[in-house]
Amino acid sequence: MVRLTIDGKEIEVAEGTNIIEAARRLGIEVPHYCYHPGLSVAGQCRLCMVELGNNPRPQIGCNTQVAEGMVVRTDTPKVLEVRQSIMEFHLINHPLDCPVCDQAGECWLQIYYMKHGLYEPRMVDEKVHKPKAVPLGPHVMLDAERCILCSRCVRFCDEVTGTGELGIFDRGDRSEIGLFPGRELANPYSANVIDICPVGALTDRDFRFAVRVWYLDTAKSICPGCSRGCNIDVHYNIRRPHHNQGRRVARLKPRFNAEVNRWWICDAGRYGYRFVDDPSRLGAPARGRGDAAQEVGWEEIIPLVTAQLRRYRPDEIGVVASPKMANEDFFLLRRLVDHLGLIHVDFRVPPRTPGDEDRILIKADKNPNTRGAELIGLGPRPGGLDARGMLRAARDRRIKCLWVFHHDLQASAWPAAEVGDALRAVECFIYQGSNSNGVSAAAHYVLPSAAWVERDGTFTNFEGRVQRFWKAVEPLGLSLADWEILGRLGAALGLGPEPASAEACFKALAASAAPFAGLSYRELRDTGKVLSA
Amino acid sequence: MNARGAVRVEFTPEQLAEVRRLQGLYPDRRAALLPVLQLAQEAFGHISLEAEEYVAGLFDLSPAHVHEVVTFYTLFFREPKGRHVISVCHNLTCHLLGAQQVLAHLKERLGVEVGGTTPDGRVTLLGVECLCACEMAPMLQVDDRYEGNLTREKVDWILEGLA
User: Fold this and answer.
1) CB–CB of B65 and A179 under 8 A?
2) pTM here?
3) Crossing angle of helices A387-395 and A416-425, rounded to 10°
4) What digits encode the pLDDT tens for the residues A351-406?
5) Do A347 and A495 reside in the same domain of the chain?
6) Is residue A353 part of a domain?
7) Whose CA is closest to A72, among A60, A82, A81, A83?
8) B-side interface with A, Cβ within 8 Å?
9) Residue A500 sits in which domain range?
10) Complex ipTM, two decimals?
11) 3-state secondary structure at position A336
12) In B, which residues are within 8 Å of A177 by CB distance?
């Protein structure tokens, strides 16, 4: 450990820490563009100048490691003057097109200019013009005039993905970020360069011009795209509902978690939220198939479904849960299954094409909560059938009532004919899920689920880390969180009162399932806890 | 873009041996990128995008990083150049002593603009900054040779000497 003084305050930090990070620990922000804790030090932007002891010249904080007894000042007139000069340099060729720039409101040129701007520009020459609105790949748009050449994006592609697509070409005031001619920026993590771009040079083609960032609100969440469980922020727009074609979820951004995803998320996860505000959402409970289908209220559907669950013998009922459901949902479903004495329970449905996996973040299992389903006991039981066995038994009319959660069985690895035969043969097909799909139309009873951003809950990732996600927006239409639907069914079946909240479900889970013992929402905090079992 | 040169972008075994020797000279073999690019320019006439990718492969670098180096340095030719390259200095001393007239005369004689190559592929004409020979201003560089104290007559005489 090393002791030093920054702006008169003493602090002890680990050897090798740089001045920006040491100052951050004291709550002192040293302005910077090119430095990023997840990337190598470039020393390119020169904005993080600080004064060191009696050293006559200010020095960059990113590339200066702390030393015992070091005296750092970040607030002297000289430092402030240097910042102003550096900002002047960065803005010499900047187009100042904030009114039409998507970055406005979350732009570090704007933010630092408010504090360190010159406000009396001296620039009289014509600015250097560069390419604008150049698509670099499926997700990233480049405006070379806004770029301050910090090289974060270049280093990201070199150091994190190892794909090296980007470079800084030409030199002097004609330098610009770009791709090797004919190539594109299409690696599975490409959109992270948008997050780390401190200015409006790299913007998100998906989000561009959708909503002004100051209308967005944020909820902490977990990406449901695979079993990694990357920590994310959901940025949603409810203040300007007429923007973005009425879509409430505007974008997903990575949220730092040192042990899960650091600063990054993959593109598949980032853009995997579209189903939330999609026309395919199921907005109301419904009964009856095809033309006979009619939307009904919850007070009508709950007794109908409970009557069906009571009508059949336990061995005539099959339950296919989904590893996209939360731990809270699994707990209530398990309770209900045990109460009815059902024996045919499973949650695994293999996808038609196996998932891709890499050594960065992406996991082959495209479900956020397979581990939770295993731990809470929703896998096949001794003497009971697995999901495919249930389909075959349905076709042979041995299973008469099938309750499927979320899965599109028609998109599974199983032959479509086999699925179709089973669903035609079964007497009672209950579908519970957020969106319509290849099998929901065949359901006699549809129970519409809230999407993950519309409710609270927890997922257990592949390594047994239980992580919370928070409600961002209200459930669409009449949809309810799976735990609420299961709570109402449970109450109707005589399992006692409905749980009041997802947190109450989790509390009951922690009290009854050994791996979760001792955990609570409070205990999980923002970044989750790994189960000891 | 590469069709014009029609030179096959591949080093001979001797040239490859030279690449390996150059790469062995430095603790980080990337440091040999500049001399290898010079070798490529000698071998292929100019550095096409194809040549950049080829050299990137020899260094296990991404082509973008080779492109960074090639676009940074003005002495790499990214388009086919003439058999001879004339670089006219137009920095301060030469400018005051008539560089613009020298350039105008060359443009007229060769029928090309600065940066252009004569249709017969004989000469590429460039304008450059100081070549460190102010004592002989106005001056130019023709291939590896300096020529100074230029007059119209001397420029004509230089052109006559180029095959």
Assistant:
1) no
2) 0.94
3) 60
4) 999 999 999 999 999 999 999 999 999 999 999 999 999 999 999 999 999 999 99
5) yes
6) yes
7) A60
8) 49, 52-53, 61-65, 67-68, 71-72
9) 286-530
10) 0.88
11) helix
12) none
